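Expect chain and fold; see below:
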Amino acid sequence: MDNLQAITQAFWIFGSIATVVLAVRLWFSGLAVVYRSFFAFLCFTIARDLFLRAVTLPRDVYAYFYMFTQAVVAFLMGLVIAELFSLVLRQYPAIRTVSRWALLGIVIVCAVGGSLLFYLQATAAAKLGPQWRLPLFFAAERSVYIALTASILLGTLVLTWYPIRLPRNVVVHFFLFTTYFLCKALSTLIRAYVTRQQYALVDVAWLGLSGLLVVTWAVLLKPSGEHVDVVVGHRWNPGDQEKLLTQLEGINSALARAGQR
């Protein structure tokens, strides 16, 4: 267990340093303005890590601190996903607007529904003990991550199906964040189904992988990537690309007309 704690600590320090490096690179390259929500997410992560290194919180206070910071992380991740949709769909403003509102609605419904379902089940089973806040928070957190997972997978489907021409940075950022988020969501979702010892192994794997992804971001996101366009969707059948773009433009036009009524 001591070795596992040492590895966890090493990965945590590595990830924290990598996050600082990435945030600094985004700031000085001017990309922090392009990826504002992502930059805010990085800054909050850095601030949280620095606070935990500098301050030792009592156990009961730490529980509230943990819930607050995890809620902020989930909120910022939702903003990053909305920002990704805006970047991918910037040529289609009507679809972009609808996707933002749909994402917000899905997250709210899932968070409230998940919390209510947990509360009703726990009350019926007489298992709502004095430490009810943390399990209730975990139930709401899982519901939010399920909603965000469905949203980002839908975005991935759109990006891989429709031949939208995008800056290379946007494509790199989209797939890196999708990988990052899905790993984070998986580690959050399986918490309820494994023991504390098993979750410690999951946490180590998550810390190591997230650190590597942050390093990859720092290496691949460059100012020049904003001026190099690439097409990801439907590369296996170039002949259908114009047809698919016409369909996408038709959907955007229909939504724009509906919004004007």
